Amino acid sequence: MKFKALRLYREDGRRVSRMVENTVDDLDAGDVVIRAEYAAVNYKDARAVTGVGNVISRFPCVPGVEVAGVVHESADPSFRPGDKVTVQGGRDFGMRRDGGYSEYVRVPAAWLGRVPEGSDTFDMVGMGLAAYTSAVAIDALMKHGVTPASGKIVVTGGTGGSSSFAIDMLANLGFHVVASTGKTAEHAYLKSLGAKEVIGRDGLTTGDKPLEEQLWAGAIDVVGGEPLANLLRSVQKGGVVCAFGNAAGETFTSSIYPFILRSVQLVGVNGNHPVPERGDVWQRMMPGGDLCPRHTREICHTIAFEDLQAHCDRLIAGGVRGRAVVSFGR
Ligand SMILES: NC(=O)c1ccc[n+]([C@@H]2O[C@H](COP(=O)([O-])OP(=O)(O)OC[C@H]3O[C@@H](n4cnc5c(N)ncnc54)[C@H](OP(=O)(O)O)[C@@H]3O)[C@@H](O)[C@H]2O)c1
Predict the structure, then answer these.
(1) 330 has pLDDT over 80
(2) Which domains, ranges and CATH numbers included, belong to the chain?
Protein backbone atom coordinates (compact mmCIF):
# COMPACT_ATOMS: atom_id res chain seq x y z
CA MET A 1 0.00 0.00 0.00
CA LYS A 2 1.40 3.40 -1.03
CA PHE A 3 0.26 6.72 0.42
CA LYS A 4 1.27 10.38 0.64
CA ALA A 5 3.35 11.79 3.50
CA LEU A 6 5.09 15.12 4.06
CA ARG A 7 8.71 14.61 5.08
CA LEU A 8 11.28 17.07 6.36
CA TYR A 9 14.85 16.53 5.13
CA ARG A 10 18.13 18.21 6.02
CA GLU A 11 20.01 18.98 2.82
CA ASP A 12 23.19 21.09 2.56
CA GLY A 13 22.48 22.57 6.02
CA ARG A 14 18.90 23.57 5.05
CA ARG A 15 15.62 22.02 6.21
CA VAL A 16 13.33 21.20 3.30
CA SER A 17 9.88 19.57 3.40
CA ARG A 18 8.61 17.51 0.48
CA MET A 19 5.47 15.52 -0.26
CA VAL A 20 6.60 11.91 -0.85
CA GLU A 21 5.11 8.49 -1.50
CA ASN A 22 5.61 6.11 1.46
CA THR A 23 4.64 2.62 2.56
CA VAL A 24 3.93 1.62 6.17
CA ASP A 25 7.42 0.12 6.33
CA ASP A 26 8.91 3.58 5.74
CA LEU A 27 7.35 4.80 9.02
CA ASP A 28 8.84 4.44 12.50
CA ALA A 29 7.87 1.23 14.29
CA GLY A 30 4.69 0.85 16.33
CA ASP A 31 1.99 -1.71 17.00
CA VAL A 32 -0.98 0.27 15.63
CA VAL A 33 -1.46 1.66 12.11
CA ILE A 34 -4.03 4.46 11.80
CA ARG A 35 -5.75 5.68 8.65
CA ALA A 36 -5.54 9.43 9.21
CA GLU A 37 -8.67 11.58 8.89
CA TYR A 38 -7.50 14.91 10.35
CA ALA A 39 -4.24 16.47 11.54
CA ALA A 40 -3.87 19.82 13.28
CA VAL A 41 -1.59 22.71 12.31
CA ASN A 42 -0.04 24.20 15.44
CA TYR A 43 2.49 27.03 15.49
CA LYS A 44 5.22 24.47 16.21
CA ASP A 45 4.08 22.33 13.26
CA ALA A 46 4.33 25.35 10.96
CA ARG A 47 7.86 25.98 12.25
CA ALA A 48 8.71 22.33 11.55
CA VAL A 49 7.26 22.28 8.03
CA THR A 50 8.92 25.57 7.06
CA GLY A 51 12.24 24.55 8.64
CA VAL A 52 12.25 27.38 11.22
CA GLY A 53 13.94 26.61 14.55
CA ASN A 54 14.68 23.15 15.92
CA VAL A 55 11.25 21.51 16.32
CA ILE A 56 12.48 18.52 14.30
CA SER A 57 15.75 17.06 15.46
CA ARG A 58 15.88 13.80 13.51
CA PHE A 59 16.04 13.59 9.74
CA PRO A 60 14.21 12.67 7.67
CA CYS A 61 11.02 12.94 9.74
CA VAL A 62 7.30 13.36 9.18
CA PRO A 63 6.13 16.49 11.10
CA GLY A 64 2.67 16.92 12.64
CA VAL A 65 2.19 16.51 16.40
CA GLU A 66 -1.55 15.71 16.34
CA VAL A 67 -3.61 13.35 14.26
CA ALA A 68 -6.94 11.53 14.55
CA GLY A 69 -8.36 8.72 12.49
CA VAL A 70 -9.42 5.11 12.42
CA VAL A 71 -7.36 2.07 13.41
CA HIS A 72 -6.35 0.24 10.22
CA GLU A 73 -4.50 -2.65 11.88
CA SER A 74 -3.35 -3.36 15.41
CA ALA A 75 -0.96 -5.87 16.98
CA ASP A 76 -2.22 -4.73 20.40
CA PRO A 77 -5.45 -6.45 21.53
CA SER A 78 -6.78 -3.28 23.18
CA PHE A 79 -7.37 -1.67 19.76
CA ARG A 80 -9.37 -3.09 16.85
CA PRO A 81 -9.71 -2.02 13.22
CA GLY A 82 -12.37 0.70 13.01
CA ASP A 83 -11.71 2.17 16.47
CA LYS A 84 -11.62 5.98 16.39
CA VAL A 85 -8.41 7.23 17.98
CA THR A 86 -6.15 10.24 18.32
CA VAL A 87 -2.44 10.78 18.97
CA GLN A 88 -1.45 14.16 20.36
CA GLY A 89 1.01 15.65 22.79
CA GLY A 90 4.10 14.35 24.50
CA ARG A 91 6.56 11.67 23.42
CA ASP A 92 8.47 12.54 20.25
CA PHE A 93 5.57 12.24 17.81
CA GLY A 94 6.10 14.66 14.90
CA MET A 95 9.46 15.84 16.26
CA ARG A 96 11.89 12.94 16.65
CA ARG A 97 9.45 10.26 15.49
CA ASP A 98 7.33 10.22 12.34
CA GLY A 99 4.19 12.25 13.03
CA GLY A 100 0.75 13.05 11.69
CA TYR A 101 1.28 14.58 8.23
CA SER A 102 0.84 11.23 6.54
CA GLU A 103 -2.21 9.41 5.19
CA TYR A 104 -1.25 6.43 7.38
CA VAL A 105 0.46 6.76 10.76
CA ARG A 106 2.17 4.08 12.89
CA VAL A 107 2.62 4.46 16.68
CA PRO A 108 2.90 2.43 19.90
CA ALA A 109 -0.55 1.62 21.31
CA ALA A 110 0.32 3.40 24.58
CA TRP A 111 0.27 6.76 22.76
CA LEU A 112 -3.34 6.43 21.59
CA GLY A 113 -6.36 8.16 23.09
CA ARG A 114 -9.87 7.12 22.20
CA VAL A 115 -12.39 9.48 20.64
CA PRO A 116 -15.16 9.59 23.26
CA GLU A 117 -18.88 9.19 22.61
CA GLY A 118 -20.40 12.49 21.45
CA SER A 119 -17.17 13.67 19.78
CA ASP A 120 -15.58 12.89 16.43
CA THR A 121 -12.08 12.84 14.96
CA PHE A 122 -12.44 16.42 13.70
CA ASP A 123 -13.33 17.73 17.17
CA MET A 124 -10.43 15.85 18.76
CA VAL A 125 -7.84 17.38 16.48
CA GLY A 126 -9.64 20.71 16.20
CA MET A 127 -9.42 21.20 19.95
CA GLY A 128 -6.15 19.32 20.33
CA LEU A 129 -3.07 20.85 21.90
CA ALA A 130 -4.41 24.39 21.35
CA ALA A 131 -7.57 24.03 23.41
CA TYR A 132 -6.01 21.64 25.91
CA THR A 133 -3.10 23.96 26.72
CA SER A 134 -5.49 26.89 27.05
CA ALA A 135 -7.64 24.79 29.38
CA VAL A 136 -4.58 23.88 31.51
CA ALA A 137 -3.69 27.59 31.67
CA ILE A 138 -7.24 28.59 32.67
CA ASP A 139 -7.31 25.85 35.30
CA ALA A 140 -3.99 27.20 36.65
CA LEU A 141 -5.36 30.77 36.67
CA MET A 142 -8.31 29.62 38.76
CA LYS A 143 -6.18 27.47 41.08
CA HIS A 144 -4.10 30.61 41.75
CA GLY A 145 -7.23 32.33 42.99
CA VAL A 146 -8.49 34.32 39.99
CA THR A 147 -12.29 34.36 39.66
CA PRO A 148 -14.69 36.25 37.39
CA ALA A 149 -15.09 38.77 40.23
CA SER A 150 -11.33 39.51 40.26
CA GLY A 151 -11.44 41.73 37.16
CA LYS A 152 -10.54 41.61 33.47
CA ILE A 153 -8.54 38.80 31.86
CA VAL A 154 -6.48 39.71 28.80
CA VAL A 155 -5.66 37.08 26.16
CA THR A 156 -2.76 37.91 23.82
CA GLY A 157 -2.45 36.68 20.22
CA GLY A 158 -6.25 36.75 20.25
CA THR A 159 -6.98 35.35 16.78
CA GLY A 160 -4.51 32.45 17.09
CA GLY A 161 -5.65 28.86 17.54
CA SER A 162 -4.87 28.52 21.25
CA SER A 163 -6.04 32.02 22.13
CA SER A 164 -9.34 31.63 20.29
CA PHE A 165 -10.10 28.63 22.50
CA ALA A 166 -8.93 30.47 25.62
CA ILE A 167 -11.35 33.33 24.87
CA ASP A 168 -14.19 30.88 24.22
CA MET A 169 -13.62 28.91 27.45
CA LEU A 170 -12.99 31.95 29.70
CA ALA A 171 -16.16 33.65 28.46
CA ASN A 172 -18.13 30.47 29.07
CA LEU A 173 -16.87 30.47 32.66
CA GLY A 174 -18.16 34.03 33.15
CA PHE A 175 -14.88 35.97 32.91
CA HIS A 176 -14.69 39.46 31.41
CA VAL A 177 -12.34 38.69 28.51
CA VAL A 178 -10.26 41.31 26.70
CA ALA A 179 -8.69 40.00 23.48
CA SER A 180 -5.49 41.58 22.21
CA THR A 181 -4.84 41.27 18.47
CA GLY A 182 -2.77 42.68 15.64
CA LYS A 183 -5.59 42.01 13.17
CA THR A 184 -7.90 45.04 13.00
CA ALA A 185 -10.30 43.21 10.66
CA GLU A 186 -11.02 40.42 13.17
CA HIS A 187 -12.68 42.29 16.05
CA ALA A 188 -16.11 40.86 15.18
CA TYR A 189 -14.68 37.32 15.15
CA LEU A 190 -13.15 37.80 18.62
CA LYS A 191 -16.42 39.20 20.00
CA SER A 192 -18.33 36.27 18.50
CA LEU A 193 -16.11 33.93 20.58
CA GLY A 194 -17.04 35.81 23.76
CA ALA A 195 -14.52 38.69 24.11
CA LYS A 196 -16.20 41.68 25.79
CA GLU A 197 -13.47 44.06 24.54
CA VAL A 198 -10.85 43.92 21.79
CA ILE A 199 -7.62 45.92 21.95
CA GLY A 200 -4.57 46.28 19.70
CA ARG A 201 -1.20 44.76 20.54
CA ASP A 202 -0.12 48.16 21.91
CA GLY A 203 -3.00 48.24 24.43
CA LEU A 204 -1.51 45.83 26.97
CA THR A 205 -0.19 48.65 29.16
CA THR A 206 -0.49 52.42 29.44
CA GLY A 207 3.17 53.48 29.38
CA ASP A 208 6.74 52.34 29.83
CA LYS A 209 7.20 52.80 33.57
CA PRO A 210 7.93 49.59 35.56
CA LEU A 211 4.43 49.84 37.09
CA GLU A 212 1.54 51.27 35.12
CA GLU A 213 -2.24 51.47 35.51
CA GLN A 214 -3.60 48.21 36.96
CA LEU A 215 -5.69 46.83 34.09
CA TRP A 216 -5.62 43.05 34.38
CA ALA A 217 -6.62 40.58 37.09
CA GLY A 218 -5.08 37.88 34.94
CA ALA A 219 -3.70 37.05 31.53
CA ILE A 220 -3.29 34.13 29.18
CA ASP A 221 -0.17 34.91 27.19
CA VAL A 222 0.76 32.96 24.05
CA VAL A 223 3.22 35.44 22.57
CA GLY A 224 5.99 35.97 25.17
CA GLY A 225 8.69 38.51 24.28
CA GLU A 226 8.10 42.24 24.64
CA PRO A 227 4.27 42.02 24.84
CA LEU A 228 4.62 39.85 27.95
CA ALA A 229 6.94 42.41 29.55
CA ASN A 230 4.42 45.13 28.69
CA LEU A 231 1.40 43.39 30.14
CA LEU A 232 3.28 42.61 33.37
CA ARG A 233 3.48 46.40 34.01
CA SER A 234 -0.33 46.54 34.08
CA VAL A 235 -1.29 43.45 36.07
CA GLN A 236 -3.19 44.42 39.19
CA LYS A 237 -2.08 43.59 42.72
CA GLY A 238 -2.20 39.80 43.26
CA GLY A 239 -2.86 39.17 39.57
CA VAL A 240 -1.79 36.02 37.72
CA VAL A 241 -0.27 35.64 34.24
CA CYS A 242 -0.25 32.17 32.69
CA ALA A 243 2.26 32.05 29.82
CA PHE A 244 2.78 29.26 27.31
CA GLY A 245 3.91 30.72 23.99
CA ASN A 246 6.70 32.44 22.10
CA ALA A 247 5.04 33.84 18.94
CA ALA A 248 6.49 37.32 19.60
CA GLY A 249 9.79 36.22 21.09
CA GLU A 250 11.64 33.72 23.22
CA THR A 251 13.06 36.21 25.72
CA PHE A 252 11.80 39.28 27.58
CA THR A 253 13.12 41.81 30.05
CA SER A 254 11.01 42.92 33.00
CA SER A 255 11.67 44.93 36.11
CA ILE A 256 11.22 43.05 39.38
CA TYR A 257 8.55 45.50 40.62
CA PRO A 258 5.36 43.75 39.39
CA PHE A 259 6.52 40.74 41.44
CA ILE A 260 7.80 42.39 44.61
CA LEU A 261 5.42 45.35 44.88
CA ARG A 262 2.21 43.92 43.42
CA SER A 263 2.74 40.20 44.19
CA VAL A 264 2.08 39.38 40.54
CA GLN A 265 2.52 35.68 39.77
CA LEU A 266 3.94 34.50 36.45
CA VAL A 267 2.94 30.88 35.91
CA GLY A 268 4.52 28.81 33.14
CA VAL A 269 2.30 26.26 31.42
CA ASN A 270 3.36 23.23 29.39
CA GLY A 271 0.39 21.46 27.82
CA ASN A 272 2.42 18.91 25.95
CA HIS A 273 0.84 15.88 27.64
CA PRO A 274 -0.16 12.72 25.75
CA VAL A 275 -3.94 12.14 25.69
CA PRO A 276 -3.82 9.05 27.97
CA GLU A 277 -2.14 11.23 30.65
CA ARG A 278 -4.37 14.32 30.39
CA GLY A 279 -6.78 13.41 33.17
CA ASP A 280 -9.31 15.78 34.64
CA VAL A 281 -8.76 18.87 32.46
CA TRP A 282 -9.22 16.86 29.23
CA GLN A 283 -12.38 15.26 30.64
CA ARG A 284 -13.75 18.73 31.50
CA MET A 285 -13.30 19.70 27.82
CA MET A 286 -15.64 16.97 26.60
CA PRO A 287 -19.34 17.64 25.88
CA GLY A 288 -21.09 18.76 29.08
CA GLY A 289 -17.85 19.78 30.85
CA ASP A 290 -17.23 23.30 32.17
CA LEU A 291 -14.18 23.69 29.86
CA CYS A 292 -15.91 22.35 26.72
CA PRO A 293 -15.40 24.92 23.93
CA ARG A 294 -18.59 26.22 22.29
CA HIS A 295 -17.04 27.47 19.04
CA THR A 296 -14.77 24.68 17.77
CA ARG A 297 -16.44 24.76 14.33
CA GLU A 298 -16.01 28.56 14.05
CA ILE A 299 -12.40 28.51 15.28
CA CYS A 300 -11.27 25.62 13.07
CA HIS A 301 -11.29 25.35 9.30
CA THR A 302 -10.11 22.49 7.11
CA ILE A 303 -7.38 22.67 4.51
CA ALA A 304 -6.37 20.08 1.92
CA PHE A 305 -3.17 18.09 2.56
CA GLU A 306 -1.74 19.54 -0.69
CA ASP A 307 -2.16 23.09 0.70
CA LEU A 308 -0.35 22.41 3.99
CA GLN A 309 3.05 23.88 3.07
CA ALA A 310 1.56 27.14 1.72
CA HIS A 311 -0.64 27.39 4.82
CA CYS A 312 2.39 27.00 7.12
CA ASP A 313 4.14 29.89 5.32
CA ARG A 314 1.08 32.10 5.98
CA LEU A 315 0.87 31.03 9.65
CA ILE A 316 4.53 31.88 10.31
CA ALA A 317 3.92 35.29 8.70
CA GLY A 318 1.08 35.80 11.25
CA GLY A 319 -1.68 35.94 8.63
CA VAL A 320 -3.93 33.13 9.83
CA ARG A 321 -7.11 33.36 11.91
CA GLY A 322 -8.08 30.46 14.18
CA ARG A 323 -6.82 26.96 13.64
CA ALA A 324 -6.35 24.94 10.48
CA VAL A 325 -7.01 21.22 10.40
CA VAL A 326 -5.67 19.13 7.52
CA SER A 327 -8.40 16.96 6.04
CA PHE A 328 -7.14 13.79 4.40
CA GLY A 329 -10.36 13.73 2.37
CA ARG A 330 -11.94 10.50 3.58
N1 LIG B 1 3.79 25.37 25.99
C2 LIG B 1 2.91 24.61 25.39
O3 LIG B 1 2.59 23.49 25.81
C4 LIG B 1 2.24 25.14 24.16
C5 LIG B 1 1.09 24.52 23.63
C6 LIG B 1 0.43 25.13 22.55
C7 LIG B 1 0.97 26.27 21.98
N8 LIG B 1 2.13 26.80 22.48
C9 LIG B 1 2.68 28.05 21.93
O10 LIG B 1 1.67 29.04 21.98
C11 LIG B 1 1.84 29.95 20.91
C12 LIG B 1 0.54 30.01 20.10
O13 LIG B 1 0.35 28.77 19.44
P14 LIG B 1 -0.82 28.63 18.35
O15 LIG B 1 -0.69 27.27 17.77
O16 LIG B 1 -2.10 29.09 18.93
O17 LIG B 1 -0.28 29.71 17.28
P18 LIG B 1 -1.05 30.64 16.25
O19 LIG B 1 -2.36 30.03 15.88
O20 LIG B 1 -0.07 30.97 15.18
O21 LIG B 1 -1.35 31.97 17.10
C22 LIG B 1 -0.36 32.87 17.46
C23 LIG B 1 -0.96 34.28 17.45
O24 LIG B 1 -0.01 35.17 18.04
C25 LIG B 1 -0.10 36.45 17.43
N26 LIG B 1 1.23 36.78 16.91
C27 LIG B 1 1.92 36.15 15.92
N28 LIG B 1 3.10 36.73 15.72
C29 LIG B 1 3.17 37.76 16.61
C30 LIG B 1 4.15 38.76 16.90
N31 LIG B 1 5.32 38.79 16.23
N32 LIG B 1 3.89 39.66 17.87
C33 LIG B 1 2.73 39.62 18.57
N34 LIG B 1 1.76 38.71 18.34
C35 LIG B 1 1.98 37.79 17.38
C36 LIG B 1 -1.13 36.34 16.31
O37 LIG B 1 -2.40 36.78 16.85
P38 LIG B 1 -3.02 38.24 16.57
O39 LIG B 1 -2.72 38.56 15.12
O40 LIG B 1 -4.48 38.08 16.86
O41 LIG B 1 -2.32 39.19 17.49
C42 LIG B 1 -1.19 34.85 16.06
O43 LIG B 1 -2.42 34.46 15.50
C44 LIG B 1 3.04 29.44 20.10
O45 LIG B 1 4.19 30.13 20.52
C46 LIG B 1 3.12 27.97 20.48
O47 LIG B 1 4.41 27.46 20.34
C48 LIG B 1 2.76 26.27 23.55
Answers:
(1) no
(2) 3-115+296-327 (3.90.180.10), 130-268 (3.40.50.720)
